[in-house]
Amino acid sequence: MMSKSKRQLLAERKQRLVADIEQQRIMLSASKEEWLQATAPYDRAWQTIMTFRPIVIAATGLISILTLKHPNRFISLSKKAIAAWGLIRTLRNSLNSANQK
């Protein structure tokens, strides 16, 4: 059997824990709006991408078929695309650094 003081200590500890949980819930609900505002651009971008999902799926199938028919052409185009992407990034970085000076 538990002594009265031990029961009282446990009850007080339980009260503190319940109060801590309540405070955490309040903080969580308060930070929810901040989180939604911070992630809103990503949510909009994802929704935009999802509207084009059927087109992307169809294009992927078409690219797969063309790759099987002409693998060398696909490899050549892939290399050109990677080079163009690198050129765009380099130009963007150099323009950004020139604007910051």
Pick out its properties.
single chain; 101 residues; mainly alpha; 3 helices; YqjK; Cell division protein FtsH
Task: Tell me what the structure shows.
94% of the residues lie in helices and 0% in strands. The protein is elongated and about 85 Å long. It has a domain at 1-51. The chain is an all-alpha fold.
Topology:
Elements (H helix, E strand, L loop, with lengths): L3 H48 L1 H17 L1 H30 L1
| Mean pLDDT, all residues | 90
Characterize the largest beta sheet: strand count, sense, and whether it forms a barrel.
none
Beta-strand content bin? under 5%
Q: What's the order of the H and E elements?
A: HHH
Radius of gyration: 29 Å
Termini separation (Å)?
76 Å
The tally of helices reads: 3
Q: What is the structural class?
A: mainly alpha
Helix content: over 70%
What sort of overall outline do the alpha carbons produce when their principal axes are compared? Answer: elongated
Contiguous runs where pLDDT drops below 50 for at least 5 residues: none
Total E-strand runs: 0
Organism: Providencia alcalifaciens DSM 30120
InterPro entries: YqjK
Protein name: Cell division protein FtsH
Q: TL;DR of this structure?
A:
The protein has three helices and no strands. With 101 residues, the protein is mostly helical.
